[in-house]
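Q: Here's a chain of 99 amino acids. Please give me its 3D structure as tokens.
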Amino acid sequence: QAHPDVVVMLDTHNQLLTQRNDRVEVRFAARFYDASLQYIGKAEGAVAKQLPSVWVHDKAAPEIAAQIEQQRDLQLTALKQFDASLKALVSAGLTAATN
């Protein structure tokens, strides 16, 4: 039977553009617990931005491709924030463990 040192609860949310929605929202969060399920800390990254909606039936391919790239860039920004937050959490944990 497995006995984990750390339990992680991962929460992700990606809301991309649709015909009825012009807001892109991206969130990544990880909550960490020790083997006794005591809260250790949280790493997170989030971005939200309103973008004009572009749809295939009335826009040229370059406009559609540019909008897809904007959404991808927002996802990447949120992931970079998450990564930085995770590194800070790990560094803080290592510092606390060595003191």
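Q: Can you summarize the key feature?
A: The mean pLDDT is 88.
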